[in-house]
Write a structure and sequence with these properties.
Blueprint: E1 3-9, H1 14-23, E2 31-38, E3 40-47, H2 50-54, E4 66-72, E5 87-88, E6 94-102, H3 105-114, H4 125-135, H5 142-149, E7 155-163, E8 170-175, E9 180-183, E10 187-191, E11 203-206, E12 211-216, E13 219-224, E14 227-229, E15 234-235, H6 251-257, H7 259-262, H8 271-282, E16 286-291, H9 293-310, E17 314-318, E18 333-339, H10 345-356, E19 360-365, H11 371-375, E20 378-381, H12 394-410, H13 414-447, E21 452-457, H14 460-476, E22 479-484, E23 501-505, H15 512-524, E24 528-533, E25 542-545, H16 555-573
Parallel strand pairs: 16-17, 16-18, 18-19, 19-20, 21-22, 21-23, 23-24, 24-25
Antiparallel strand pairs: 1-4, 1-10, 2-3, 2-4, 5-6, 6-7, 7-8, 8-12, 9-10, 9-11, 11-15, 12-13, 13-14
Helix pairs in contact: 3-4, 4-5, 8-12, 9-12, 9-14, 12-13, 13-16, 14-16
The structure holds 6-O-phosphono-alpha-D-glucopyranose (G6P).
Residues 292-295, 339-341, 344, 347, 390-392, 584, 586, 588 line the site of 6-O-phosphono-alpha-D-glucopyranose (G6P).
C-alpha cells in the first residue's frame, strides 16, 4: 500500500517525481522519499506527507535525469526516516523502491547478516536492495542482478530499481502489486497508478505478474523468464484534470459533487459485456459477491436489486472471510468481485482461491488494468474516473448503478431503459446534493461534538445505514454504528439516551412503517432523530429530504449521497484531513 513512481528521460526529474508522488499519496502517507541519479545516488527522506519531503528539496541542486520516489504506508517498521524508501544495497550504488510485502524477509535478512551486511532500516525492502547488490557483479547488468534476485523473494512486490553504475535506466518488476509504465517521448515512467504520469503522457502499458521491464529514455522492454514479450500500449482517456482538485478544498467533496456527472458514464459500457455477465448469472447454481469496505456495501445493495428486480438470489461475503467458506464453492458458482482499486489484497486472495476451485469470477472495477481486471474472467468497469479521496464515494454510486444495469440486462430491458434510468438517477442525485448542502452543513456543526452516532434502516436501506456509518466514522473519527432498524432493540438501544443522534434511513418504500416503529423506540428514549426520507414525518427532529417520486431501487443512492456529505462536513468541522483519514489508505494491498 505504498505509491511508487520512477522517471528516466532527458529532463531534470526531481520536481516531476515529487508532483507525481502527490497524486499517489492516497496509497499511503506516513513517510516519503526520493532518489535521483546524479553521478552518485542522492536521496531525501521525510516522515509525514510529500509536502514535508518537498520542503527539504532545493530543486536547483538536487537533480538528475533518472530517479524514483515513494510514499509509504508502514507495514514492516514504524514510519521513520531510515524506514522510508528508497533503500540501498551494501555498496550504496543500488536503490530500490517497493510496494508490497516480502514474506520471507526475516530468513533472507539473517543470511545477509551472516554474510556481513549491515542494515539501516527495519524494512523488508532493504533486504531486496542488499540481495540485488550482491548479485550485481562487475560483469552483470542491473536487469540481470534483479532477475537473479527474484526467485529468492516470496510475497508481493512492485519494485523499481536504479543504479549509479547505470544512470539512464530503471528496472521494474511486478508480482501481485500494481505496476504501470507510462510511455512518453524521450522519457518513460514507472508508477503504481496511471494518474501519476498523466500530466506527461497518456500512453500506458500494464506490467503483468512475473514480468520484468527495462526502461531507458527511449525504450521500454518487457521480459518474461528472460524472453522479450510484446505489450499493448493503450491510450488513457482520463484527463490529468480528473485527478486534480479543480478549485475544491478536498477530493472527497469534489468526488461527491461530481457524481451527477460521473453517474451517466456507467452506461458508456460495453453492453455486450454486461449481457454476458447477466447470462452467466442466469445459469449459475449460486451467485456470490465478494468485496470489502464501501464496495461491500454497494454489493449489499446490489443483492437487493438483483433479487427484487431480477429474481436472482445471491450472497455477499466479506472478502477477508471468504476463505472460511471457499470449500462450498464449485464450478456452478459465479463470483462477482467488486473493488474500486482492483488491488485489495483480501479480494485478490479470495478471487485466487475461488479460481483455484474452478469458479468463474467476474469483477466490477474502477482502475483500468489493475490486478483484479487481469485475473477475472470478465470485467465491468465502473467508469467513475480517478477517485483520490480515501473514502469511496463516486465509485460507490457507480457500482450501485451497475447492479441496476445488470438487472435491466437480466430482464431484457437494457437497450430500452438503461440510459433513461441512469440519466434520471444523475438528475435526482444532483437535486439531492443541491437541496441538502445547507441542511447538512448545519447538522454537521450540531453533530461534530457527539461521542457517537447511530444509523438504522431496513431492507435495502440497511446497507445505506452501514455505509452512512462507515463514511461517518472514517472521516469524523467519531464512533458510528449502522444496523438493521429491527436490531436496534436487541442491544444497541441501551446506548440511546437524551440527545444521542440516530439517523433513520426511511424512504417511502415497503420498509417505511416498520422503520417508523423502530424510530419511535429512539424517540421514547429522547434520542435525537435525524430522518432521511422523501416523506416528512413529525417524528424527525432533523430532516434530510431526498427527492420524491424516485424508483425505490434508487433510494440507497439518494440516501447515501447526503450521508457522504454529512461525513465530509463533520470531518472538516473537526479539522480532519478528510482526504487522508488517519491510519487508512485507499488501496489496501495487505491482508
Ligand atoms: C479501503 C478503503 C475503503 C474501500 C476499501 C475497499 O479500506 O479505505 O474506502 O472501500 O478499501 O477498497 P476497494 O478498492 O477494494 O473497493
Amino acid at each position: 500500500m505504498c505509491g511508487i513512481i520512477g522517471y528516466v528521460g532527458d529532463k531534470n526529474c526531481a520536481r516531476i517525481l515529487v508532483d507525481s508522488l502527490k497524486t499517489l499519496e492516497y496509497r499511503g502517507y506516513d513517510s516519503a522519499g526520493i532518489v535521483v541519479v546524479n553521478g552518485k545516488l542522492e536521496v531525501k527522506k521525510a516522515v509525514g506527507r510529500v509536502a514535508g519531503l518537498e520542503s527539504q528539496i532545493d530543486y536547483s541542486t538536487f537533480n538528475g535525469t533518472t530517479g524514483m520516489a515513494h510514499t509509504r504506508w508502514a507495514t514492516h517498521g514504524k514510519p521513520s526516516v531510515p524506514n522510508s524508501h528508497p533503500h540501498f544495497d551494501q555498496s550504496g550504488t543500488v536503490a530500490v523502491i517497493h510496494n508490497g510485502i516480502i514474506e520471507n524477509f526475516a530468513e533472507l535478512k539473517s543470511g545477509l547478516l551472516s554474510r556481513g551486511h549491515v542494515f539501516a532500516s527495519e524494512t523488508d525492502t532493504e533486504v531486496v536492495s542488499h540481495l540485488i547488490g550482491e548479485n550485481y557483479s562487475s560483469d552483470s547488468t542491473l536487469e540481470e542482478a534483479v532477475a537473479k534476485t527474484l526467485p529468492l523473494l516470496h510475497g508481493s512486490y512492485a519494485l523499481g530499481v536504479v543504479s549509479s553504475r547505470d544512470p539512464g535506466k530503471i528496472v521494474a518488476v511486478r508480482k501481485s502489486s500494481p505496476l504501470v509504465i507510462g510511455v512518453g517521448k524521450g522519457e518513460n515512467f514507472i508508477a503504481s497508478d496511471v494518474p501519476a504520469f498523466l500530466a506527461h503522457t497518456n500512453k500506458a502499458l500494464v506490467v503483468d505478474d512475473g514480468e520484468l521491464a527495462v526502461l531507458t529514455p527511449r525504450s521500454v522492454e518487457v521480459f518474461r523468464r528472460g524472453k522479450r514479450v510484446k505489450k499493448d500500449v493503450w491510450k488513457v482517456t482520463w484527463t490529468p484534470e480528473a485527478a486534480k482538485l479543480g478549485g475544491y478544498p478536498y477530493f472527497m467533496l469534489k468526488e461527491i459533487e461530481e457524481q451527477p456527472a460521473t453517474i451517466p458514464r456507467v452506461v458508456a459500457q460495453n453492453e455486450a459485456g454486461i449481457r454476458r455477465v447477466a447470462a452467466k448469472l442466469k445459469g449459475a447454481k449460486r451467485v456470490v459477491m465478494l468485496a470489502c469496505g464501501t464496495s461491500r456495501h454497494a454489493a449489499l445493495i446490489g443483492r437487493y436489486i438483483l433479487m427484487k428486480d431480477a429474481g436472482i438470489y445471491c450472497d455477499v461475503m466479506l472478502a477477508s472471510e471468504f476463505s472460511h467458506f471457499a470449500q462450498s464453492m464449485d464450478r456452478g458458482t459465479v463470483i462477482i468481485a467488486i473493488s474500486q482499486s482492483g488491488e485489495t489484497a483480501d479480494v485478490m486472495d479470495a478471487v485466487r482461491s475461488a479460481k483455484a476451485r474452478g469458479v468463474c469470477v467476474y469483477s466490477i472495477v474502477n482502475v483500468l488494468g489493475s490486478t483484479l481486471t487481469r485475473e477475472s474472467d470478465g470485467v465491468i468497469y465502473m467508469q467513475a474516473g480517478p477517485e483520490v479521496g480515501v473514502a469511496a464515494t463516486k465509485s460507490f454510486s457507480a457500482t450501485v448503478l451497475m447492479f441496476s444495469l445488470l438487472s435491466l440486462a437480466l430482464q431484457g430491458r437494457y437497450r430500452k431503459d438503461a440510459k433513461g434510468f441512469v440519466d434520471g438517477a444523475a438528475a435526482l442525485v444532483k437535486k439531492t446534493i443541491e437541496d441538502n448542502r445547507g441542511t447538512v452543513k448545519a447538522l454537521a456543526e450540531e453533530l461534530k461534538g457527539s461521542p457517537a452516532v447511530y444509523f438504522i434502516g431496513r431492507g435495502i436501506n440497511f446497507a445505506t445505514a452501514i455505509e452512512g456509518a462507515l463514511k461517518f466514522k472514517e472521516i469524523s473519527y467519531i464512533h458510528a454504528e449502522g444496523m438493521p432498524a429491527g436490531e436496534l432493540k436487541h442491544g444497541t438501544l441501551s446506548l440511546v439516551e437524551k440527545g444521542v443522534p440516530v439517523v433513520t434511513i426511511n424512504p417511502a418504500d415497503d420498509t417505511y412503517e416498520e422503520t417508523v416503529s423502530n424510530t419511535m423506540e429512539v424517540r421514547a428514549r429522547e434520542g435525537l432523530v435525524i430522518g432521511v426520507s422523501d416523506r416528512p414525518n413529525k417524528i424527525y427532529d432533523r430532516f434530510i429530504r431526498i427527492p420524491e417520486g424516485a424508483d425505490p431501487l434508487l433510494y440507497p443512492l439518494l440516501s447515501t449521497v447526503p450521508l457522504q456529505m454529512l461525513a465530509y462536513y463533520v470531518g472538516v468541522a473537526r479539522g480532519n484531513d478528510v482526504d487522508k483519514p488517519r491510519n487508512l489508505a485507499k488501496s489496501v494491498t495487505v491482508k
